Amino acid sequence: xxxxxxxxxxxxxxxxFAIAAQKQNITLSGQVMNARxxxxxxxxxxxxxxxxxxxxxxxxxxxxxxxxxxxxxxxGNYIVEYQIVGFEKLSKSILIGSLSAFLDLGVADxxxxxxxxxxxxxxxxxxxxxxxxxxxxxxxxxNNISQTGGSVLQALKNLPGITSGQDGKVALRGSDKVAILIxxxxxxxxxxxxxxxxxxxxxxxxxxxxxxxNPSAKYDANGAAGIINIIFKKNKQEGFNGKVGxxxxxxxxxxxxxxxxxxxxxxxxxxxxxxxxxxxxxxxxINAFFQGDWLYTETLxxxxxxxxxxxxxxxxxxxxKRNRNTHFLTTKAGLDWNISENDQFSVSVLxxxxxxxxRGDEPFFNKDLSNRLRxxxxxxxxxKTTVMAxxxxxxxxxxxxxxxxxxxNYTFHREDEKYFFENxxxxxxxxxxxxxxxxxxxxxxxxxxxxxxxxxxxEAGVKFxxxxxxxxxxxxxxxxSPLDTGAGGQATYSEVIPAAYANYVxxxxxxxxxxxxxxEYVNLKYKVNPNHNTYKSDGYNYTEPFPNIRLxxxxxxxxxxxxFYTRRVDRPNEVDIRIFPKYDDAExxxxxxxxxKPQFTNSIELGYKTSYNKGFFYAAAYRKNTKATINRIATxxxxxxxxxxxxxxxxxxxxxxxxxIWQNSFSNVFSLNANLNIYQNIIEAFSVVNQYPVTSLYTAxxxxxxxxxxxxNGTFKLSSNxxxxxxxxxxxxxxxxxxxxxxxYSLDIGFKKQLRDKKTELLINATDLLNTMRVKREIKGAGFxxxxxxxxxxxxxxxxxxxxx
Length: 805
Known about the structure:
Blueprint (H helix, E strand, L loop, with lengths): L2 H12 L10 E10 L10 E6 L5 E6 L5 E8 L1 E8 L6 E7 L5 E9 L26 E4 L11 H5 L5 E3 L5 E3 L5 E5 L23 E7 L13 E7 L6 E13 L18 E14 L2 E25 L4 E24 L4 E23 L6 E25 L6 E22 L4 E25 L2 E21 L12 E19 L3 E18 L9 E17 L4 E12 L3 H4 L4 E4 L2 E4 L7 E14 L2 E13 L2 E7 L6 E7 L3 E13 L4 E14 L2 E5 L5 E5 L2 E17 L2 E10 L2 E3 L2 E3 L2 E11 L5 E8 L7 E7 L2 E7 L5 E9 L1
Parallel strand pairs: 1-7, 11-13, 28-32
Antiparallel strand pairs: 1-4, 2-3, 2-5, 5-6, 8-12, 9-10, 12-13, 14-15, 14-45, 15-16, 16-17, 16-44, 17-18, 18-19, 19-20, 20-21, 21-22, 22-23, 23-24, 24-25, 25-26, 26-29, 27-28, 29-30, 30-33, 31-32, 33-34, 34-37, 35-36, 37-38, 38-41, 39-40, 40-43, 41-42, 42-45, 43-44
């Protein structure tokens, strides 16, 4: 049996995993009045019973205003009864669906009578139900044992439909156009119009992750592939409590591939340290919290071996090895103040700092490696600082779920990057350096209104954003440097985005419907140094609607089918249009394009889900059509052998696929989750004009590829206090601009045990246990082909201890 066959034999027969199903509980409210004079009735017994057997579920008593609340009601069919001495009993049939967390039962008018209220028999046989909502999937990181102690990027890779790349980004169903939110908001930590920072955000700070494939109109319109919402931990227990933890580990225990001759060693036995502290104090009207995490890692961040072949027959072999040291500190503190039963004020501050030091070597050899053409070495010193302050006020009306939310967020993000390069040629040594300083200021104001209805709810709101990013680039070229000093200087990115939305949700016994629209105006300006040798100031503006529609039919309480339609946009981020050239490596220069415009995507999805006692099965078919697709295109301008990577709008593209998720608990000991995603990416034929460094035309024929991924995950409950988790991933070859990326697969394992006091937890895990993950790329550019294999660090062993107090 071959090695790969053995691996997949192991994956199929030895891998389990389970992500706990989310319970959906609803809050009901209403008002009881005297039918004769419309006066409120106090002390009315409101009783909720199951329709199928009239068993008691819950009850409440109306207050002086006649209002009542029934909390934590599972979805299902019920009868609500209103009873008080002196009035006739009133009964109504109601459906409690899963689309709205709050429902308004309206006004119940009771008719006066002389009949005596009969004895009420209470049956406390109460059952739970599982939410069947299909627009959002929620996963607790406490269940992701195999990735505890790592980054959010590593934790995401095990979730259904998500793949992660070495570039620090994730793709959802084959597309990296994903909006990343933190606690429901866009921040500079993870990017506003694009994603960033996931590889250095500690997973220990995160409570759960939501995947939203078809966002409603209440979310910002950007992110064609969908939304990933990262929710920080926040304790809700009374009094003073907290959690302290420490996870440590080692990576790169063995070399996957040895260096080319005469360069500095690869990082090996790289340390990983992740201490974390969570504190919470809740007393009466005040809740104060603090969350702090520090993640220190040494990583073989890149170890790529490349062969480039040019049209004239020249072949160049090279290696790019990058040793990385990272310090990432993230803290979040805040205060919730319940001013009254109906008013709450919250303030929070998030501070993050990321220090990255990269030391790299890049030797260049001829075809048979007999002659080293040059050695290029570099040092990257990068410091990123983020501060986000949030103020939020919530007014709750007397009806539960009826509320007004007003919030303001301010974000400051600084990128301070310094690069130093040493170019060792046979006859001379050149020293290049440059510095980038970029300050980002973002102000967001939002107002959101929600009102429950008898069979759903309405929500509406407005948002205003102002974003400003001044950037300055300074070059210091050395001997025979390819750095273009005329492309330096200053540039300022600014955008103003007012938006408004409305959304309506309806649900009855058989039908679910949701319809909404977000109208967004964008005015973007990019002011360029007037002396720039290629680009001039540019920008764009638009006013566009972004509708969303969802229709569902429920076959029964366990099964339903849903149809989604959404329209989304992906706007270029500041770094996508940034005019300053920057090394990808010694002979590949990347630069932005201020003429870049947004891409718009229309998505349609048909989904089916059925639940049963031990799990559920979910299936979806989807298609996304995108206009003005944004891709980075590599071109060469002879006689130079330098390759320029420039973002372009490359025309139309599509993503069509199917997704399946199956979860089953075979017993109290073993549960399994399988996820299969198959999709076809198509990039239609296009032609683009590249302005930098000189005007050139690039034309490409249609490119398409069917790809997918398979994940098999599971959990063994070894005892009441210990669990073993194994997770496997297989990624099929996939389409990238001008080429494809090859097969990738890995196996992760984790063990968790609660110690005797059940407040202390021990964990041990390993990522890429078999050390099989590598990235192979094949690119066909204008005048060259490129084949690369990246043997970067993926195998890490960790041990950790966490204690609650």
